[in-house]
Specification:
Layout (H helix, E strand, L loop, with lengths): L1 H14 L17 H9 L1 H10 L3 E11 L5 E12 L3 E8 L3 E6 L2 E6 L4 E6 H5 L3 H6 L8 E6 L6 E7 L6 E9 L2 E9 L4 E11 L17 E4 L2
Parallel strand pairs: 6-12
Antiparallel strand pairs: 1-2, 1-11, 2-3, 3-4, 4-5, 5-6, 7-8, 8-9, 9-10, 10-11
């Protein structure tokens, strides 16, 4: 049991910072320099405006994780659902099925391969993560130091650093393309980089409340970690 619990906690700690953690995360050259500078200077305003009108969000995602030396560690795909304030659902489908549900009070992680569920208080689990940024309706400045950022790829970028030192994430970069959330880049304190790419985005579309209610599966372990 102790070995299984350790395995689940490791997976939970690995995935939580990537959530919309996550996790995670421009300007053109030549004749586009002036236009690019205007985009870069508007990164923070773009993020604030996007969050101000956001009530729900759903999208397919592709998650790519690179080690500190640039090697590709893993890749996963799935679907993400968000209902503000405070509720979200991550469905990891490939290569391993995993479900993460936040109901506004607690975060549940169901590893279907191990048939185990871990859960902990949502405020603690999400502190300083991308999920906190998207799910919370608190002011951005309560949790992050924000600055505009340039990558030169045609996107509007903003960089965030968590104010809390008790978080795995060192910085988060958010990219917008044509005003829509497109990419998250997350770097943890060990130099690991996670990229989340969103497609088939639906903003402020109705979502069933049942998506954000965790139903405990029969059998298996149900572990509280706080």
């Amino acid at each position: 049991m102790a070995r299984a619990r350790c395995c689940v906690l490791t997976r939970m700690q690995k995935n939580l910072p990537h959530m919309l953690k996550p996790i995670v995360y421009g300007a053109f050259l030549g004749c586009w320099l002036l236009a690019g500078a205007a985009q870069a200077s508007n990164g923070l305003a773009t993020l604030e405006n996007y969050l101000r009108g956001l009530t729900s969000f759903s999208a397919d995602f592709r998650q790519i994780t690179l080690s500190a030396d640039g090697r590709r560690d893993s890749e996963a795909t799935g679907r993400f659902y968000l209902l503000r304030p405070g509720r979200f659902r991550w469905e990891y489908r490939q290569p391993n099925a995993q479900l993460i549900v936040a109901d506004g009070r607690r975060v549940y992680v169901h590893d279907q391969e191990l048939n185990q569920v871990t859960h902990q208080a949502q405020a603690r689990a999400l502190d300083g993560t991308p999920a906190q940024l998207l799910a919370s309706d608190a002011p951005l400045a309560d949790y992050f130091v924000a600055r505009d950022f340039e990558r030169g790829d045609g996107r509007v970028w903003v960089e965030l650093e968590p104010k809390s030192s008790d978080t795995q994430m060192a910085r988060l970069r958010i990219g917008f393309l044509d005003g829509e959330l497109d990419t998250l880049l997350m770097e943890d304190r060990f130099g690991q980089l996670t990229r989340l790419i969103f497609t088939k985005v639906q903003r402020n579309a109705p979502l069933a409340p049942e998506l954000f209610v965790f139903k405990q599966p029969p059998g298996g372990d149900f572990l509280q970690i706080d």
